[in-house]
Amino acid sequence: MEKALEAFKAVVRVEAIVEQVQKSVQAFEQRIELKCESHERRTDDRFAHAERRLNDKLEAHEQRLRELERRMAEAEGKISSALATAYRIAVEDEISRKNEKDAKLAVLSAIPTGNSGTKKDSTDA
Fold first, then answer.
1. Cα→Cα distances 79→30, 61, 92, Å
2. Residues 47-61: pLDDT tens digits?
3. Residue 124, SS3?
4. Do residues 105 and 120 lie in contact, with contact meaning Cβ atoms separated by under 8 Å?
5. What's this model's pTM, rounded to 2 decimal places?
6. Which spans in 2-116 are helix H?
7. Within 10 A of 91 (CB to CB), how many other CB atoms are there?
8. Dihedrals φ, ψ of 112, to 5°?
9. Taking a C-beta distance cutoff of 8 angstroms, is the pair 29, 21 a contact?
10. HSE (CB half, 13 Å, CA atoms) of 101?
11. Which residues, in sequence order, are CB contacts of 113 under 8 Å at separation 6+?
12. Are residues 108 and 123 in contact, defined by beta-carbon separation less than 8 angstroms?
């Protein structure tokens, strides 16, 4: 009977040790879980911060692109206007030169020649 009592006491001690180990394991698992959650929150915060920075940079680049596109359209308009003005001036100069040439020819054709005393033919000039 004494052996049975000692065996029972040993079983009770082992059960107490097992229960203590289970509590320790459970507490350890809870600490690990809390650390994981904390790490996940910090990681999420870092990713969110990085995402915000990237979005801000993207927005800045998109805004810069829109500004460059606006400037380019403005420059294209100025170039088109300058080309149109240059073409108009070239055409006006050509017309003016042609008119001056025609006027000179008309004056020259109106001058009498000394040979016959008649007006010079415009085809002779």
1. 72, 26, 20
2. 999 999 999 999 999
3. coil
4. no
5. 0.47
6. 2-110
7. 10
8. -70, 145
9. no
10. 7
11. 119, 120
12. no
How far apart, in Å, are the Cα atoms of 106 and each of 5, 95, 122? 148, 16, 8
Tokens of 81: 């206007």
DSSP bridge pairs for 77: none
- According to DSSP, residue 120 is labeled P
Q: Which amino acid makes up residue 76?
A: E
User: pLDDT by residue (tens digit) across 2-23?
Assistant: 888 888 889 999 999 999 999 9
In the structure, what pLDDT confidence band is assigned to residue 125 with cuts at 50, 70 and 90? Answer: very low
What is the rounded distance in angstroms from the CA atom of residue 73 to the CA atom of residue 83?
15
- Residue that is written with structure tokens 């996940």 in the block: 40
Amino acid, res. 91: V
Q: Tokens 């596109």, residue?
A: 69
Q: Which two tokens stand for residue 101?
A: 């040439």
Q: How far is CA 50 from the centre of its chain?
A: 19
